[in-house]
Write a structure and sequence with these properties.
Number of strands: 7
Catalytic activity: GDP-mannose + (glucomannan)n = GDP + (glucomannan)n+1
Keywords: Cell wall biogenesis/degradation, Glycosyltransferase, Golgi apparatus, Membrane, Transferase, Transmembrane, Transmembrane helix
CATH superfamily of the domain at 71-311: Spore Coat Polysaccharide Biosynthesis Protein SpsA, Chain A
CATH topology of the domain at 71-311: Spore Coat Polysaccharide Biosynthesis Protein SpsA, Chain A
Radius of gyration: 27 Å
Order of helices and strands: HHHEHEHEHEHEHEHHEHHHHHH
GO molecular function, one term: mannan synthase activity
Organism: Sesamum alatum
Strand order of the largest sheet: 3-2-1-4-6-5-7
Shape: globular
Strand content: 5-15%
Number of helices: 16
CATH class of the domain at 71-311: Alpha Beta
Helix content: 55-70%
Structural class: alpha/beta
CATH architecture of the domain at 71-311: Alpha-Beta Complex
Membrane topology: Multi-pass membrane protein
Length: about 475
Amino acid sequence: MRDIVFREVEMNETYDPTMRLIHAWDSIRVPIIVPILRFAVYICIGMSIMLFIERVYMAIVIACVKCLGKKRYTKYQLDAIKEDLEKNKNYPKVLVQIPMFNEKEVYKLSIGAVSALSWPSDRLIVQVLDDSTNEVLRTMVEIECRKWIEKGVNVKYETRNNRNGYKAGALREGLKKHYVEDCEFVIIFDADFQPEEDFLWRTIPYLLENPELGLVQARWKFVNADECLMTRLQEMSLDYHFSVEQEVGSSTCSFFGFNGTAGVWRMRAINDAGGWKDRTTVEDMDLAVRASLKGWKFLFVGDLAVKNELPSTFKAYRYQQHRWSCGPANLFRKMFKEIIICERVSIWKKWHVIYAFFFVRKIIAHWVTFFFYCIVIPATILVPEVHLPKPLAIYLPAGITILNAASTLRSIHLLVFWILFENVMSLHRSKAAIIGLLEANRVNEWVVTEKLGNTMKQKYNMKASRRPRSRTGER
């Protein structure tokens, strides 16, 4: 009788789907899953250590720069150069380019801010490069340009019949105009950027004093950082990029990636590097790397900020991050050999560009966040045979996170939300980096980041004025 009962239990277990899954999992876990997971753990730990060392190195450099007060831009005698310019009236001719595409909400802000720059009117050209497909909007932008022309500003309104090369194509075509030939410097501002009146006075003198300087880059200041939680989290990531990555690149080997806007280029450096190319979606980084390989030096001015706008919708931010993650990986694939065989720059600079700038920051940083934190660590919980040491699973990621978030102390209380948000975005960034390395579909996808200008602020104010004030609601 007892044998019959046990036989029935065994038969029930055999035909129970849950038990069959458990047995199947047990049969493949040790011989197949465990070796694969252990290998993945070793790879991810190696990448984490690489990222941690890079973060610690940059933290040490920033600490030394701040403690010693020796930022590169502080060694220049700007006041003496300004006095010489005003005394001798030998102002260089400057071109300001504003590329735009259907920028209905912000075109007035950018054109107005650039037109108000303090510089002799006969030595300043404002070039509006409008690739808009909306004919009504084109007319509106042209009317805005005419308004500033009537005020004495030398504004040139340029359009194209196609969007070949996207932003790089527009900038390249703009530099071919006959009135640009005698311009010594060119400044690029995206359509949502609003420079202060003294922007040229705080950038051009650097280039006049040092003929080896090819680029002066300003940092960004976000006008809508407090709009929502997502913009606050974006600010945390970008503040680290400017406060640490750009500053370290400028202070150590005079190289960092051009941000595509709020920067002043020496025209000769652009021509020497081969001009604008549209082979990737990061034409700005492409130009910066090529100019650096030609021996040009870059300077980051951390105390000069230009107002601009952060993407305020997740869809817009996701498209932006795809472009910012896919483009560098694709550029790394295209320029790896060129960087290696270049003879005009030092081995240290080559190492910085290949290892630190591209490999660790543009590829490893995304892969560690996604594969290690989102896949491998949770998988080790399901596979107890794979042991993950606590220092590597907790302390190492915590150290990297704290070093990243320390640049935005005002949002340090949002650290947990920032970690979760970055883990979510790591999926999109890792996928984009792989697409860029393999040159797969969407490698050259270009979606212009939607800008809202003052519309969101106006809508919020209208809603706030309609509803009665309530302390409970505000809280």
